[in-house]
Write a structure and sequence with these properties.
Shape: globular
Strand content: 5-15%
Radius of gyration: 16 Å
Number of helices: 8
Oligomer: single chain
Order of helices and strands: EHHHHEHEHEHEHE
Helix content: 25-40%
Length: 212
């Protein structure tokens, strides 16, 4: 298989196993406010402020940015995320073989720094990062992936994106990314296929050889 011209990687649930940390934070947030807990899949792969802005719920009419900040404060109080299987090896291989890499995430820069600083081995290796602060509209809007390709200086058609959520898959496809791979760490494989993923893998180990 031909190596991709670039890798576009989601962070949470794709490079690091942080979804349990985020879900615990959301549960604590809703419990503290006395609100009924919604289906937390609503938030997966999306910026919290976007969900609070456009989805109906007990938060309707409140400041979505302030609410998102409350959730993120709880996330930051949690444990460190562990890498998804194959993530560290994929980053190392891309670095060694000069395959351009961008991380395109719905998280903020503080969380990115924390996730990169652990055993993922991304600190100093991945310099192109698109965070929630870099775009007006988050996933499933394609702006983040378009900006990632722009910063890398690559045509989206030659890139390979990896995502764990339907919202992220749709964002990559709408940015005209040539190959979109789903990882079934957070959502079932059939959900990712229905969103348009060209294939679905259980983790990142199967991608390591593709950058060579």
């Amino acid at each position: 298989m031909t190596a991709p011209g670039a890798l576009l990687l989601d962070l949470d649930g794709t490079l690091v196993d942080s979804e349990p940390i985020h879900r615990a934070a959301y549960r604590a947030f809703f419990a503290a406010r006395g609100w009924e807990e919604p289906d937390l899949a609503l938030f997966t792969g999306r910026r919290a402020e976007d969900v609070f802005s456009v989805e109906a719920g007990p938060w309707t009419g409140l400041d979505p940015v302030a609410l998102a900040r409350e959730v993120m404060d709880l996330v930051h109080a949690g444990e460190e995320p562990e890498p998804i299987a194959g993530a560290a090896a994929l980053i190392a291989a891309a670095t060694r073989l000069d395959v351009p890499v961008a991380v395109v995430t719905s998280a903020g820069p503080d969380w990115v720094e924390r996730a990169f600083g652990g055993s993922l081995g991304a600190a100093g290796r991945i310099t192109v990062v698109v965070t929630a602060h870099d775009v007006v509209d988050g996933k499933p809007d394609p702006a983040g992936y378009r900006l990632g390709c722009e910063r890398l200086g690559v045509d989206p058609a030659v890139a390979l994106a990896v995502e764990d959520s339907p919202a992220g898959v749709r964002a990559a496809l709408d940015a005209a990314v040539g190959t979109v791979v789903g990882v079934s760490t957070t959502h079932a494989a059939d959900e990712l296929v229905r969103a348009g993923a060209h294939e679905v893998l259980p983790d990142l180990t199967g991608l390591v050889d593709r950058v060579s």
